[in-house]
Amino acid sequence: MANKRKIAYAHHLPGWKFEGGNREVLKASRRVTPDEYEEDMRGALSCPGCFTNVERTPKEKDLFTNQRDPFYRHLKRWSHVACVLRAKKPIGKRYDTWEEAKRAVEHEHLAVVKEFLQEKPEIDLVPGDEYDETPVEDVNGPLSEVPIGRHHGESFELPSKITTVAGICRNFEKNKDKYFVLPGAIHAVKLAELLTDVADLERKILDETQKPRLFFGKILRSWNAGKYSTSIRMTRLRCGRGVGDFTVKMPDGFCQAKNINDASVGRIVMFYGVITKNGGSIGVEHLAWGEIALVPKKYNELLIPE
């Protein structure tokens, strides 16, 4: 379900422009909820996720005649800028030629993910390097045949990486605008349009035929349900009403290696998997090494502005 109130607030800064504007100055400006909107703010409101202009619907201060709550929406002229908070269906991109697709890969506008790493690789971190939960683990993989040609049934062999979610998180501000072909996908889709906030999930998703997808969520609590590193660590994420609890269930040792621990409250975790049901709650488990990672703190507001 598209949540029309995904943009919980807008930055109000008269005269600020997306092109050339100082984003740190914008972030420090007044935050205005749809209910606090005044008509003289029109044209001076920006999205906290992508920093492009937004407008309130309805534009007038009053509520809709049917008592629906007002909300912010992106302007069509900024549709080329990816934003996780944009309420729209993902639009797939196809390529006219192999040369065009290969050039997109070379220019880092397109990434082909043949598979996510299943096992933890051996990584030598340089002493003194800052470790921000996203070490470089991705390695060049084999050519992958992907059906993203413009013509029906046309596939291209393109370079792929055996990728980790950590690698996606590492440069998220840049990656959110990049097109990704995930395992088994038939379209290249912008990363921002592939991501689903756990808080937006409805319980009916469990009644649908599921394929692995990219999710993210804010950690409310994380604890070891046992005493050992092999015991299950329960990581509770913020979820939607009527869903019950949402829990990431993975061995404590695995989570500790990912820096997911008792002190992770408030962090955002991203993962690639299938949602499962357990009693009155839902969650995810049995993730491979490359299928889950913490998002660096500096990108929190691009995913969940608060």
Low-pLDDT segments, ≥5 res = 125-131
State the shape: globular
Q: Please provide the count of β strands.
A: 20
**What is the total domain count?**
3
Amount of beta strand: 25-35%
Helix tally? 7
Helix content: 10-25%
Mean pLDDT, all residues: 87
What is the CATH superfamily of the largest domain? Nucleic acid-binding proteins
CATH class of the largest domain: Mainly Beta
Terminus-to-terminus distance? 21 Å
Protein name: PARP-type domain-containing protein
Could you walk me through the main structural features you see in this protein, from its secondary elements to its overall organization?
It is built from seven helices and 20 strands. Helix content is 12%, strand content 27%. The chain is α+β, with helices and mostly antiparallel strands and 306 residues long. Strand 14 (213-224) and strand 15 form a beta hairpin. Residues 125-131 have low confidence and may be disordered. Strands 13, 14, 15, 16, 17, 18, 19 and 20 form an eight-stranded mixed sheet that branches. A five-stranded mixed sheet has the order 7-10-6-11-12. It has three domains: 10-78, no CATH class; 98-193, no CATH class; 195-303, Nucleic acid-binding proteins (OB fold (Dihydrolipoamide Acetyltransferase, E2P), Beta Barrel), CATH 2.40.50.
